[in-house]
Amino acid sequence: MKAVIMAGGQGSRLRPLTENVPKPMARLCGRPVVEYILELLAENGIFESVLTLQYLPERLTGHFEGAEFAGVKLSFCEEEAPLGTAGSVKNALGAPDGPALVISGDALCDFPLRQAVEAHRESGAAVTIVTAKVDDPREYGLVVADETDRITGFVEKPSYAQATSELANTGIYILSPEAVNMIPEGRKFDFASDLFPAMLERGMLLKNCTLSGYWCDIGDLGAYRRAQADLLAGRVRCRLRGERDAAGNYFAGRRPAGRYELTPPVWVGEGVRIGGNAQVGEGSVLDDGCTVGAGAQVRGSVLLPRSVLGEHAAAEGAVLCPGAAVKSRARLGEGAAVGEGAAVGAGAEVRAGIRVAGGVKVPDGAAVSDHLSAKGGAACAFDDEGMCGEVGVELTPELAVRIGCAVGTLAKGRPVGVATGDARCAKVLGAALIAGVRSTGAPVLDFGSVFEALFGFAMGYNALTLGVYLCAGEQNAIKVLCEAGLPATRRVEREIELALSRGEFARAGADGFGDCVDMSGIGVMYLTELLRQAPDGLDGMRARVACGNAAAGRLLSDVLTKLGCEIAEEAALQLTLSEDGRRLELSEGETKLGCHRAVAAWCLAQFEQQEDVAVENDFPRALDTLAGERGRRVYRYLLCPADGSDAQGRKLAARQQCARDGLMLAVQLLALMKRGGLSLRELDRQLPPFAEAERMVPIRTPPARALGQFAGERAGEGVVVRGDRGVVLLRPRKNGGAIRVFAEAASWEIAEELCADFTRRLEGLLDKEGEIG
């Protein structure tokens, strides 16, 4: 069998390490990662391999001048233009006459690949995908398979909320000739997004093969350091260069002279010099020709060839690229990286997560708290409510500027909508974010201080595809939104997170900054739209309005008054708006419609008019029954889709602002009650009985593993469990730290019991796993 090693990637998340070498040439304990891969192939009986090249191809061809390594015969196939993962393999294989194994050139593993090859031959599959179970699914493409290991779907780098599988696609595939022949020649084509979905549509057999052993996708500097620590700790079954001493340290050459302290395991290359009283901690790598000065401290760091750590300097979980110099008493924080040939001045500090690009000179005594030469920076991540934190601590104007730069880069010149809440700090953060967006050349539509529902209308009214809302108060968050104010997709969030982590933003010239258009008059258009929701007016109706947001409450009262509805404190019907204006509750006497029942009443009216509806994925499943009885359909959109599975739901939801706008909903429901001469109790009786309860359960285990204990149907995000008493949705939070339990039943008491029951079951599973661990 022939192997294809995909070795053409640029490795942008590994910068500055990969500024001058391709990812497969990144050194692990003194030799390139691709050598470990070739030895693994030879061990599993594969002795012919072709390497696909694109980025810095000469570094690979020059390293293997003899076109052979570890008994594996090598050939090289260079791409003139990017062909994608599948396209590059097709380019390398042509028309194969037998199965071929594909493996990534930047992963370290010791899998028994023979098992996968045998399983492929026995099953007769068109493709066999090797998977590994992972705790954190957010950086991986996930494989969804049934109990027979037949693959049924894929989820690409989801948030925890959509990660209902813990099987990571390792990028190791065994392809039949028929699979290779489906790949078009000469154009970009990927396995995950193009080939595999097409094969599933045709009903072709794709099999999962989960192998035990070690696997690490070396996608970022953290994984790069961890892989070497794992090599030293003996977690990887492979050959390490050098000899191991009695203490557990490895030496590729003679042990350096001098009195210093090594805390095993440490890997020390040839020609290394270590000064007196220096301390080198476990998991550290001192590559060939590097120098550690007297009194210096190295903890869990990688010093690549010819790098220098000066006297009394310190490196804590850092990476020094070849030829980098850190002068005396300077300090590198956790996750810091110094590029090839760069120099950090005496007494300077490069703080945690900061990357200094190759060739950069950091002045003596400087404190580097941001990336230099746009090469790096600490990442920010999204949770269910957006990017959250304490104002002045996590949410700062500096961060807001960077988020603005990331959003503007993603916008690629398209206009970006921005709005804030009323708090002064939100306005300041908004101004900083606007500056960041404009610095990329993207124009901004500034809607000023408005409540969130109004901003959603503003985005739809102006056909914006990207917007940011900043709120502060009980909840502090920077929210990124898409069409008509819908939550951003995972692709959008991920691109923003990656831009922040890399510090790679679009930069406009002096004459290219984006315009900022004052859109604070949007309230007039919104008022007009609200009046249109009741074309026949609301004469004869009486109501009172309650809202914690004075502006939203006042606007709704004004609209109802203009439509002829009497607003009176003694009115029996009360309309209660949430502060963001997105949710509405109605009450009259003993009758109360919660926010979901209020939307369900509106949906019922749509069904009667032969219209389908779109609601968020968490909406009670009772609505589906209501729709089915009338021959209509409920579409659901996800909180953070990693694919296009909810595309129809999002398209419809963008046209149905009413379902997530409490003010529009209030006007439409009052109009509905007036037309039908209905009281709130009579309106409520038209709906099926359902009540809801919700809990948040903190977890310490991968969400997919916890959800796998429940027999239920996949719901895009989470798992739906149906039973005689009701329906329960279990959905992980985006950050993976908790599972939200949504229970619905015919009564509130039963919903509460269901919610408590599933909470106990989750907590019991987690306690049991903790005992096992």
TrEMBL record:
Family, per entry: Belongs to the phosphohexose mutase family.
Ranges of residues in domain Alpha-D-phosphohexomutase alpha/beta/alpha: 382-505
Cleavable signal peptide: none
UniProt cross-references to SUPFAM superfamilies, sorted A to Z: Nucleotide-diphospho-sugar transferases, Phosphoglucomutase, first 3 domains
GO terms of biological process kind: carbohydrate metabolic process
GO molecular function, one term: intramolecular phosphotransferase activity
Name of the protein in question: Nucleotidyl transferase domain-containing protein
